[in-house]
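Let us work through a complete example step by step.
Step 1: write down the sequence.
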Amino acid sequence: MDWIDYWQKLPYFTSPYLFEIGSFELRYYSLMYLLAFLLTYVLVSFRIKQEKLPYSKETIQDYFLWAILGLIIGARFGYTVIYNLPYYLENPLEIILPFSFSGGIHFTGISGMSYHGGLVGLLVASVLFCRRRKIDFLRFADLIAPAVPLGFGFGRIGNFLNGELYGRLTNVAWGMYFPLDPSGQLRHPSQLYAFALEGLLLFAVLWTLRRIKGFPGLHLCLYLIGYGLARITVEFFRQPDPQLGFLFNHLSMGQILSGLMILAGIGLGITLKAATKPAKTPRGN
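Step 2: predict the structure and record it as tokens.
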């Protein structure tokens, strides 16, 4: 077996779980969520120490408890409503329980998470946390935003290890065969593209720009715009969810939601920048 053949069949040699006991499986995907939050926490703590920012370690630790809860709830309900509502209307218990009740009871873990739903949940949790602690939300968001992409990128590695969210058909040499693909054809490893663009590249850009002093909320806006652009690009290679397919004949749901993210980032940036302009002093006659 040459290296190209090995690369293309790599998903077949990759286990999605660390170990299994009976029907219980500890999947790498779950561990990637933990790694994502750990990396983000380390990077945020590094910024606070290096840049001498006015946040205590206890405040950041408390925030991450809120953030984890908000992200998971938002991601789960976002997937339920956006991507598979008819199924979950018939199986409502599966929204919150890690079991499938089709043909008996089977442990599945919490299957199906939406990035955009998770973002909404995270923002809501962050706003509530900042209000409770009397913290300026926009400045706090600017602290967190540059650190998020690297952690989130490892979630895409979890998708790859699960063999899910694979790409569209291709004939490029670096394409891969995925066990969950019923067609058994060569496909783009779109999870790795996402890791590179939504994770590594976006992190490199935002982390480099993190010291730029602008209006409060600038780095939050840059994140919204940057992620939206990266996600739209990746979606050109990713296979749309089968229950949705293409919308308007050409666009995926991820592209539509990411386009709205870009518009939100631009609109928020224009609004915040205008709000921070000093008022003009009228000239005397």
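Step 3: interpret the result. The CA atoms of residues 131 and 228 lie 27 Å apart.
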